[in-house]
Amino acid sequence: MADPAQAADATGSRRARRLTGIERAALAFYSSAMWLVQPLYRRKLRRRARAESGYGHALPERFARYGATATVQRGDPAHPVVWLHAVSLGETRAAGALIAALRERIPAVRFVLTSGTATGWQEATRHLRAGDAQTWLPWDTPGAVRRFLEHFQPQLGLLMETEVWPNMVEACARRGLPLWLVNARLNARSAQRIARARWLMGPAYRHLDAVLAQSEADATRLRAVGAPVRQVSGNIKFDARPDPLQVQQGRQWAGAFKGETGRAIVMLASSRDGEEAQWLAALQARTRREGIQWLVVPRHPQRFDAVAQLCVQAGFAVSRRSAWQDAPTTDGSIWLGDSMGEMALYYAMADVALLGGSFLPLGGQNLIEACACGCPVVMGPHTFNFAQAAQDAEHCGSALRVADMRQAVDTAQALVADGERLAAMRACAASFAVSHQGALGRTVDAIARALERA
After folding, report:
1. Catalytic site residue 163?
2. 294, 336 in Cβ contact below 8 A?
3. What is the pTM for the complete model shown?
4. pLDDT value, residue 426
């Protein structure tokens, strides 16, 4: 019997690369538009850099203008160069697990790591080794994409989760560079948008060389837009282990705090603009607020000060993580998690987490890390970005779904008052995270076979 992976490769190699006339016209129009809006993009980056300085770093590299520092040790069959793109923080953390596993399998591999956000860039630096390179994903014009590929000359490209750009895909196809979408997901809303832009996005998905999907539902939607789905591998984020030192510190702090105050800790995790106001209104509406220590961790660092101000305006004192010395305060103020890269610490401290991004129609944030830390989740109605993980967590008893923020606050209050139920949910959360592991090994196996044949 033929190897399924080889059969998939053969199918991918025969996949039609030519564009129809309408598709060529759509790509040309898109390319012209992307070239014309470059000044607006530069202005946006400078504006964002005022709030978050990382966006101003290496600005020319956004357009594939490289200096002496953006280099990678050239590849050969024994030292392949793999380009890996992860747009933001969550994807980059998952990419970190993939990088480590590939290094273990192929020690001589070199990486070109690209990012799209400042938090993603900061996280990516943790995974660099001698011979690797780091840069921004180039703005998707034909010239910038060509300069990027000529400068780094990777043997394989890996895009994490959702990042499919028309000119980049077409340029890789023309050069014969295999480009994979790994840990791939596609929600129903995005699938509808792609279908509406089928003359542009259809070829972008069709001309990928392989897609490794997170779930059967993702695979079905990806196939519907033309993507060459090779297999359903699962979600690598289940294999990304929380930092054990942060988990230990968080549990120590929580134990000491509860021993002194008797208060449970409930966290609003990765909150988005508008959700903190809902949460504060829900707290103000409750006649009894004792018994819970509230912790809020905004999703974006540039909003830390604004969220602190919101809390003060609502009548609450604020204690910021950045001001803590050896332990959090015990004075009854709201805790503000104003640090990056410490989500495992916060989840380990919390008895329950309210899932940010799910109380407004934003699609929800990833709940896997919370479960891996043994922290049950209360989520709102909007979880379409992580639909399968949310559904599975709810089904196994590690997460509860509510209609709105006020109900979430009330549900958290009820949970921390019911020690037996809370303990059962904590156990479910930990087992849920462990039971879904394995995607990393399947993904590395597929990539390693491809590199061996390159």
Report:
1. no
2. no
3. 0.85
4. 94
